[in-house]
């Protein structure tokens, strides 16, 4: 596999009052509306946690601090690209009254409980979405100190 097909990504797993924040977007491969966690590529000069916080802000308008991480997920997508994804947990005690996506690619924001996702009416972008929710609900929480800062 060429390096052009290997992608380092981050996802913000936001849980508030037992519901998960998902973004509605268009899947670039299928052209269909899908649900995903706020997620995206790590920029060249960016550390992993900063990337997760940036993606969260860009896709939701929320500025939150991470509390833990769930580990690393991997997926070989239908386009033949391999995605390596760090799942970062955000568990806010409160939320602002108003927040909205800063990125025009995000069509809407949705809050779903884990069991509500099956009836959401939209497919998940990939199995990485449900896998992260399962890990969270299984109680997986890795300390942020295990992610070494960029030096």
From TrEMBL:
<feature type="domain" description="Nudix hydrolase">
    <location>
        <begin position="5"/>
        <end position="137"/>
    </location>
</feature>
<dbReference type="InterPro" id="IPR000086">
    <property type="entry name" value="NUDIX_hydrolase_dom"/>
</dbReference>
<dbReference type="GO" id="GO:0016787">
    <property type="term" value="F:hydrolase activity"/>
</dbReference>
<dbReference type="Pfam" id="PF00293">
    <property type="entry name" value="NUDIX"/>
</dbReference>
<keyword id="KW-0378">Hydrolase</keyword>
<dbReference type="InterPro" id="IPR015797">
    <property type="entry name" value="NUDIX_hydrolase-like_dom_sf"/>
</dbReference>
<protein>
    <submittedName>
        <fullName>NUDIX domain-containing protein</fullName>
    </submittedName>
</protein>
<dbReference type="InterPro" id="IPR020084">
    <property type="entry name" value="NUDIX_hydrolase_CS"/>
</dbReference>
């Amino acid at each position: 596999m060429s390096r052009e097909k290997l992608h380092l990504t981050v996802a913000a797993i936001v849980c508030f009052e037992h519901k998960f924040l998902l973004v509605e977007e268009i899947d670039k491969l299928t052209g269909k509306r899908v649900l995903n966690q706020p997620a995206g590529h790590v920029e060249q000069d960016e550390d992993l946690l900063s990337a997760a916080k940036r993606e969260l802000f860009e896709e939701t308008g929320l500025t939150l601090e991470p509390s833990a991480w769930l580990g690393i997920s991997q997926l070989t997508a239908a386009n033949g690209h391999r995605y390596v994804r760090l799942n970062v947990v955000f568990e806010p005690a409160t939320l602002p009254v108003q927040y909205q996506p800063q990125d025009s690619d995000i069509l809407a924001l949705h809050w779903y409980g884990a069991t509500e996702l099956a009836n959401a009416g939209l497919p998940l972008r990939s199995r990485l979405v449900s896998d992260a929710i399962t890990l969270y609900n299984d109680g997986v929480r890795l300390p942020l100190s295990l992610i070494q800062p960029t030096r």
